[in-house]
Amino acid sequence: MRISFDLDDTLFVAEEDGFTLEPPLKFPWNRIYTERLRAGTLELMQHLREMHCEIWVYTTSFRSPFYIRSLFRHYGIRIDDVVNGARHAAEVQAGHAEPMPSKYPSHYRIDLHIDDDRSVLENGRYYGFRVIQIGPPDDTWADQIIEAVQKIKAAP
Ligand SMILES: [Mg+2]
Hints:
There is one protein chain. By secondary structure, this protein is an alpha/beta fold. It has one domain: Rossmann fold, CATH 3.40.50. Strands 3-2-1-4-5 form a five-stranded parallel β-sheet, with helices on both faces. It is globular, with a radius of gyration of 15 Å. The longest helix has 14 residues, at 141-154. It has helices at 29-32, 41-50, 65-74, 85-93, 118-127, 141-154; strands at residues 2-5, 54-58, 81-83, 112-115, 131-133. It starts with a strand and ends with a helix. α2 (41-50) runs parallel beside α6 (141-154). Magnesium ion binds next to loops.
């Protein structure tokens, strides 16, 4: 199965917002990749790999796929694919006069998307794709995701 993650305020979080963080990368990488990961990200990703999940990033930001993959690679995480703002515009919105949702995971056959944005959750209900909303600091966030993956896998 395929699972995608939003970046800003989902995996990339700030200490001043009350989050516990994964340790920073070592110099000089910490100067290049300044975003910090929510504590529990590394263990969760390893766990998802063991569960044979594909791990995607789906962000409305315009960070390049190369940058995003490289950042995670420095943490030992392989990202299978990246949909950024440019790719979404070219592949989801293009050719539609009416505005498409800001993210449309089912276009990429993504089974589950993780996001902090309530509107993405609401779009999921409307357009029929699965979203878990992960927002403020919460020690159970990774468990919620694992549990949802297990449920989806167990479904006939
Ligand atoms: Mg976000």
